[in-house]
Amino acid sequence: MAQASIGVVGLAVMGSNLARNLASREGNTVAIFNRTFEKTESLATAHPEAEFVTTGTYEEFAASLSKPRTAIIMVQAGKGTDAVIDALTEVFEPGDIIVDGGNALYTDTIRRERDVRAKGINFVGAGISGGEEGALNGPSIMPGGSAEAWETLGPILRSIAAIAEGEPCVTHVGTDGAGHFVKMIHNGIEYADMQLIAEAYDLIRQGTGLTPAEIAEVFVEWNTGELESYLIEITAEVLKQVDAKTGKPLVDVILDQAGSKGTGVWTVQTALDLGVPVSGIAEAVFARAVSSKPAQRAAAANLPGPSTPFVVADKEAFIEDVRKALYASKIIAYSQGFDAIVAGAEQYGWDIKKGDIAKIWRGGCIIRARFLNRITEAYAENPGLVALVTAPYFTDAIAGTQDAWRRVVASAAQSGIPTPAFSSSLAYYDGLRAPRLPAAVVQGQRDFFGAHTYKRVDMDGTFHTLWSGDRTEVSAVDSH
Ligand code: 6PG
Predict the structure, then answer these.
(1) Cα–Cα distances in Å, from 169 out to 164, 165, 288?
(2) Any idea of the CA torsion for 356, 266, 100, 369, to the nearest 10 degrees?
(3) Atom 12 of ligand 1, residue of closest alpha carbon
(4) Average pLDDT of 113-138?
(5) What is the mean pLDDT of the chain?
(6) What are phi and psi of 211, to 5 degrees?
(7) At what angle do helices 212-222 and 230-240 cross, to 10 degrees?
(8) Are residues 230 and 140 in contact, defined by beta-carbon separation less than 8 angstroms?
(9) Does the beta carbon of 261 lie inside 6 Å of ligand 1?
(10) Does ligand 1 lie within 6 Å of residue 131's CB atom?
(11) The pTM is what?
(12) What is the pLDDT of residues 38-80, one digit of tens each?
């Protein structure tokens, strides 16, 4: 049997495309394996140019790989991944490398890395973004795992990754689950970005009466400026599309119930545990949930809305306001996402270089966007930046957009157009910059009913007020 330099397990569309990508690079011979051999054979038959080494059992797969063996698993995250890892560890040897390229939950990756390492085998959880097209032509790759594994894996992954401004979109993110953690946050930001763009579309459509095809032109125009990104580009394509069956804009015949595979939910659950407000991402997840409740939506369809219709006097000015509101909200989504990365890195002891993450998101991945360079620059200028939104470039960007942002959120509220991501991003921004927050009232309430104590602005210590007495007495207490 021919010796292969790398193997791929799991030949659904992502795995097939990644295997073809690997095979297309100089010096690679790729072994392929799938639970059902028909799929393995048909991939090899459909792509003779790839010169795949087909294997029908895990033993054959292992025997086909040169040592140290490297295999990338591309199966549905969850139990399937564990089954494949178990099978591979049976036939692999110490020093070999198993890469999980699926969308695994990072805590599973931490566990798997520990278990596989105990057998002397390297385990790398690698987030891979870019969908089918990215897997084939160059994804953005976020590998975790050990530095030793990265030494072998780095050149292979660099050879298949997308290239942005001459640099491959891959970096060793950190140990064990760091790669999948960062991929999860990438997806969270993806959710927020998609929701924000969808809200922008809705506002423009309802506010100006432009058709989807006309709004597509607006997005094409936006894509030449600071909003330039893959998601704006593909949204224009979606809006241009006409349904072959009815002749209507396709967007009008697609059922308005958004699905999800879980990475957005994981991001929010994780952020809640870490105490990081990722409100833009959370609203995007909830917006999908609201859309997917047909019975509630039908029951609520006749609830009262605003009495006056939404009338936009100057359509061009309104569209420009929406563009600015989208840009400002997008900055918040990224700022919150990077806050979650910082918190995760602290919690799990990962040395994650934020600027490098922004760099590897510039190409290949779903959230690739022009302004990622600005994020890299912001962290290069100030590695200890406490919040991305406070970097001078982004502060200036918000200064130039915030009036429009406020007008858009206000008119959306007045006209009854749901803009949860726009609105929550603005509320977060105002919360962050407020000199005093009503959190003092919450602390008072907590101390009143539960003696939960509070701190004071004018002296150190922990205090409790004897509320039922003369209500002025304050005592210093030990914190509890
Ligand atoms: C990517 C995508 C990819 C996928 C997710 C999102 O980076 O290539 O994020 O991982 O499309 O599964 O899917 P849902 O919207 O279904 O959660």
Answers:
(1) 7, 10, 30
(2) -40
(3) 261
(4) 97
(5) 96
(6) -80, 165
(7) 160
(8) no
(9) yes
(10) yes
(11) 0.96
(12) 999 999 999 999 999 999 999 999 999 999 999 999 999 888 9
Q: Is the pLDDT of residue 479 over 60?
A: no
Residue 131 CA, closest ligand 1 atom number = 8
**195: Cβ below 6 Å to ligand 1?**
no
CB 121 within 8 A of CB 111: no
Q: What average pLDDT does this structure show over 335-342? A: 98
Say if residue 470's pLDDT is above 60. Answer: no
Q: Is the pLDDT of residue 377 over 70?
A: yes
CA dihedral sign, ordered 5, 11, 14, 17: positive
pLDDT in tens, 398-445: 999 999 999 999 999 999 999 999 999 999 999 999 999 999 999 999
Q: Which of 142, 201, 274 is nearest to 422 (CA)?
A: 201
Token pair listed for 6: 């790398």
Do 429 and 277 form a contact (C-beta atoms < 8 A)? no
Cα 315 to middle of ligand 1, angstroms: 34
Is 199 among the catalytic positions? no
How far apart are the CA of 103 and the centre of ligand 1, in A? 8
Q: What is the pLDDT of residue 172?
A: 98
Residue 259 CA: nearest ligand 1 atom is 16
Q: Which of 432, 421, 418 is nearest to 191 (CA)?
A: 421
Tell me whether residue 90 is one of the annotated catalytic residues. Answer: no
Give φ, ψ of 226 to 5 degrees.
Answer: -65, -15
pLDDT given at position 471: 54
Give the whole-angstrom CA distance, residue 228 versus residue 388.
Answer: 19
Taking CA atoms, 402 is separated from 57, 156, 198, in Å, by: 59, 44, 20
Is the CB–ligand 1 distance for residue 103 below 6 Å?
yes
The ligand 1 atom at the shortest distance from the C-alpha of residue 190 is 9
User: In percent, how much of the chain has pLDDT > 70?
Assistant: 97
Q: Is 143 helix (H, G, I), strand (E, B) or coil?
A: strand
